[in-house]
């Protein structure tokens, strides 16, 4: 039996590590905060499972950890709160939610609650009350996410959000399952007497849910890599348009060679950071929505449609729809013309700033 538990723990840590590595690769390439939050989540999974593994195989460590947990559960509290906050940030970023101070108030109350629970007398009820908010908070986040997805279905039509909806539903059901398992184990199998303290620190429901999250992360990485490979193949095999070809596609605009250079030149990251005020002003002038600004920002970074799709968790069709809306608002019909309008706007704004 111990051999199976040992193998189970090793496989869990390997799965978390693979998920962590795969998401880290995407974060290094895209620098998107959501991937950093997912990395933190998997790091917490690894730390938590490592501690649980040690309590199962090292009796001395297990007794010491359990005594400390009943007195001042500092490490477990950091894990629980860190996981809850990472869940919140991931959900907030993926759904592009507006700042909601109620969520911050809930997190503050949650933190204060966990600080005061250890002051109760040692009992099964004390431990049950300690773990209760974690499942309630997970259910709250999942329910809030599902409500937001249902409230604005037009914004979340693509396949990624279909998968994310399923993940939220799974999280909601597992929050209930985990709570039931905690209730059964804490009140029927754990021992909290003055002579003997025996705590089962592992929750199978939590393990299964974390495995589901890991598989989802690995699948997303595979999809991202496939999109990147496809985009690279397209770039290598597509013929390069000549200057005359680019100009002829918009015969109603007279351009010289200097303007053409502006059309095909994309600002690097440093230039984009320096022109952030210009970007913000441009978006306000042309009334670009938050999602259209996200798309436009990636266009300025020379991202392909496939890359934008993977970075922003939206389908290719959704990317094209938003790009069409941007073109309509800026009164252009292709990327190069959009970049030309932006650079012209940037130059005019710079001249205006110098004069003022």
UniProtKB/TrEMBL annotation:
Per UniProt, what is one Pfam family of this protein?
GerE
Record's SMART domains? HTH_LUXR
UniProt key word Electron transport: no
Domain HTH luxR-type, by residue range, is: 281-346
Which keywords fit this entry according to its UniProt record? DNA-binding, Membrane, Transcription, Transcription regulation, Transmembrane, Transmembrane helix
Enumerate the Gene3D superfamilies for this protein.
Winged helix-like DNA-binding domain superfamily/Winged helix DNA-binding domain
- The portions of this protein that span the membrane are 6-27, 34-54, 74-94, 101-121, 127-149, 170-189
Q: Which PANTHER family match?
A: DNA-BINDING TRANSCRIPTIONAL ACTIVATOR DEVR_DOSR (PTHR44688)
Record-given protein name:
Transcriptional regulator, LuxR family
Query: Which species is this UniProt entry from?
Result: Carnobacterium alterfunditum
């Amino acid at each position: 039996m111990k051999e199976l538990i040992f193998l189970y723990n090793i496989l869990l840590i390997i799965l978390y590590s693979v998920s962590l590595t795969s998401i880290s690769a995407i974060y290094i390439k895209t620098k998107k905060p959501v991937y950093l939050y997912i990395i933190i989540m998997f790091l917490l999974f690894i730390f938590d499972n490592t501690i649980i593994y040690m309590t199962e195989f090292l009796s001395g460590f297990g007794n010491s950890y359990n005594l400390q947990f009943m007195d001042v559960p500092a490490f477990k509290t950091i894990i629980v709160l860190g996981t809850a906050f990472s869940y919140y940030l991931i959900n907030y970023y993926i759904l592009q939610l507006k700042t909601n101070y109620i969520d911050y108030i809930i997190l503050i109350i949650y933190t204060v609650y966990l600080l005061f629970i250890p002051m109760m007398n040692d009992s099964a009820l004390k431990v049950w009350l300690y773990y209760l908010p974690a499942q309630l908070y997970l259910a709250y986040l999942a329910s809030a996410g599902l409500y937001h997805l249902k409230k604005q279905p037009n914004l979340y039509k693509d396949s990624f959000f279909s998968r994310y909806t399923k993940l939220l539903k799974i999280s909601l059901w597992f929050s209930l399952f985990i709570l039931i398992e905690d209730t059964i184990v804490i009140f029927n199998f754990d021992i909290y007497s003055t002579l003997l303290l025996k705590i089962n620190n592992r929750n199978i429901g939590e393990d299964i849910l974390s495995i589901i999250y890991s598989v989802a992360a690995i699948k997303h990485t595979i999809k991202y890599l496939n999109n990147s490979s496809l985009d690279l193949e397209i770039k290598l095999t597509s013929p390069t348009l000549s200057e005359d070809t680019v100009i002829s596609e918009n015969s109603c605009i007279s351009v010289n060679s200097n303007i053409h250079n502006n059309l095909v030149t994309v600002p690097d990251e440093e230039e984009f950071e320096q022109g952030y005020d210009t970007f913000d002003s441009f978006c306000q002038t042309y009334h670009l929505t938050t999602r259209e600004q996200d798309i436009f920002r990636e266009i300025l970074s020379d991202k392909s449609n496939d890359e934008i799709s993977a970075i922003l968790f939206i389908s290719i069709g959704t990317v094209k729809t938003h790009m069409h809306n941007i073109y309509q608002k800026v009164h252009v019909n292709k990327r190069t013309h959009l970049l030309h309008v932006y650079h012209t706007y940037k130059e005019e704004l710079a001249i205006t700033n110098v004069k003022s």
